[in-house]
Amino acid sequence: VTVGNEFSRRTFLSRGAAAGGALALGAGASTLLAGCSSSPSGSSSTTTASGSKPGVGSGSPVRGGALTMGIIAEIDGFYPPTNHWDTNGFLYANAVYDPLMAVAANGTIQGYLASGMTSNSTFDTWTMTLRPGIKFNDGSALTSTVVKTNFEALAASALTGVALKQVASVTTPDPMTVVYTLTGPNPTFPAGLTTQVGYVVGQAMIDQATSNPNSTLIPVGTGPFIYSQWQPNDHFTCTRNPNYWRNGLPYLDSITFKPIPDTTQREATLRSGGVDMIQSVDPTTITNFSGSGGSGYQLVDTQTGIIGQPTFSYIMLNTVTPPTNDLSIRQALAKGMNQAEVQKIIGGPPAKQATGLFLPGSPYFSDTNYPTYDPAGATQLVNKYKAQHGTPSINLMTIPEPLEIKVVQTVQQMWEQVGFNVTVSEVEQATIIDDFVLGKFQAVTSYQFGAVSPDLNYVWWSTTTISPIGSIGLNFTRLDDPQLETAMLEGRHTTSQATRVSAYQTVNERLAKDLPYLWIEQYLFSEVALPRVENFNNLTLPNGMAGYSFDEGTMFLSQTWLAS
Amino acid sequence: MVKYLLRRLLQLAVVAFIISVLVFLLVHLLPGDPATIILGPNDSPHNRAVLFKQLGLNKPLIQQYTTWLTSVFHGNLGESYLDHESVTHIISTGWPIDLELIIISQVIAFAVAIPLALVTSRRPNRPIDNVSTTGTFGMLALPPFVIAPIMVAIFAVGLHWFPATGYVPFTQDPATNLHDMILPSLAITAGSIAVYYRLFRSDLISTLQEDFITMARSKGLSSRWIMWRHAFRPSSFSLLAAAGVNIGALIAGTFIVEYLFALDGLGFSLVAAVNQRDYLVVQGITLVIAIAYVVLQFIIDFVFTVVDPRVTRE
After folding, report:
1. Which of A379, A406, A554, B6 is deepest in the core (most CB within 10 A)?
2. Measured between alpha carbons, how far is A157 from A139 in angstroms, rounded to an integer?
3. pTM for this model (two decimals)
4. Cβ–Cβ under 8 Å, residues B275 and B252
């Protein structure tokens, strides 16, 4: 069983969604440069006791030791085709499995289980070569046949199938080669294999899932650790894989993940020595462990160093139901919301002004002309609308979570001050996703869009994923903007980085003009560790390149050690 | 007495049955369904229909209920739709936590409330009585979710006496288990202390004004003897009734404490299952809670007959 809040949203709206966007509908041609910054992953506002950079090991690695990590929530299982992996899910997955591909610190996509991927000139056929000599923890070998069987299970799944729709066929010309034939060109195809659909499980696990889908599946993976004990909501322990294919790794003897849902208690458990490190999506963790409060702790967060797009929190507007189908109303809502005040309520470190999908420093960042706080201008627009249609009424929806409720109540006051009639409604986490896909909302708080490549978010804004209200559509806002579609396709098609940058700047500007989303702030992830936890933010990929260590809350712990 | 107890037992069986029906219906009235949780937003009506069939959710409610009830009588409460963990296993790992929380917190509550009431009721409105009454009044106003973080900040983060979170089963390591359970138990003890103390104190004060107490005093019996032998039992009826209700409410009613201290008890599992629309888990846990509650009330009824034999005669 799983506690709802963190789990569901992250599952459906960030990572799983990114996977869907990566492969589902893509077409185009460009390089794999993606939206990347060259800075190493994660910012860090404190240093270790020894003065080294947080999360980067100093001295020689030490073998042995048991690491305990306090995580936000429990996952619902280890099987990629059917289980919903959020940030916590990827932490577990990175322990017991390996992905086919991974993101490098420079933003490029590199092989992990694969030694590499190459495409044909039209980017509609991708050939992957697997590394030789890799075995699953049950002794079976990683072969192209297993990768293909994994693909078939993923493609048949309602959860992950959409992410693989673009793959027309998979063939295995030899035991180490997998050929993906796509229905159209997609130069960013390998980026999708860094997500949930890129994790490979052993044939025995697939066989068990097929023969007895209702059984609890024990992970069979190639990962640095082996499943040892899992008591949902209490702990998951994995122990060192003595036959791990990456020489000398992992350093730790075991890792125990302990779900501690309450942020304050998770922090207190770290401070009282109950765990060695914690993860958090609460921005106050960053302030709590900065300055004097962070003395003696290592803090890594996503304030800087994001590769691609960060996750943003925002208010999503329905663009086909009145009154938010009227652009002037959406403009009034944007002008009537004091973003800086809302950011203060959320807390945490001072947030940057959010005007679009990208942060300053990203090649895709541009001045979007997103409306600034202008209550007078908002009132004027509302009055104009009122003269024709009467007072506009907005239902602002959120989940029953205290901070979100506080946010929507504040926004409610702001909008009422400029002339809107605003009601607030709370919808259970379990059903709000239904409302999103069916378009049954007017305005709703949400967060999404963290992705190493902007292509991965294609499905959320495409005109091809719009459905009528009441039918399932992944374009939740139902925004129908042909210029946006053209720009997204151009970004995917082009092989010119300049054209790609220009295309995604256009995407950003179209969203600022159409206003399906009222931006609030970047959604921050953080990790805090005791000084003895070394090298948790310093991933080296199998090919020797520096990896993207802290990817929106997830990390690889195979190269982490505990200082003696 | 046997007839009385049999009648109560029959009533409790009827109550358990009614609760099982109500729980089943209420769970299915919740908006949302397991298919949405399992399949996510990318599903199709076809896939949802297939999954509904797999889970047996396409059958009429009455058929689903009878199937479930038959399984229950065979000792099978089903399994989680999400992680396929058996409901029996979820309950078997969760109930020891709830039981421990209840036992430790109630032992502490009685150990504090009863002696304090015995002392203060002998001399009402003296300083010690005023302080105790005010103090317990304050305890009533402090819910566990306020007490818990304060205690954690002082005893876990500040003094490092107890862990902020963590749980080791009693059977695995009794000493560590008790060490881990002290703070969570204390967090829910305060309210119990306040209720027990105030009820018992007022009943004792009332009893001590009865004629038979005056008679005992006139016979030259010691105050201690009068208190324990003559006043204690007739003053404990309200305390007993309150304990029954209070302990019943604590069965899986400690969700907040379990959430804060990351204890995978019944309450925590139940709320998580409700959020996930994991029907069988919700039904199974609720049924067990209901049965535990009615059994507890049965035990309390039985104790009443021992403490006050007039109950059976009435």
Report:
1. A554
2. 27
3. 0.81
4. no
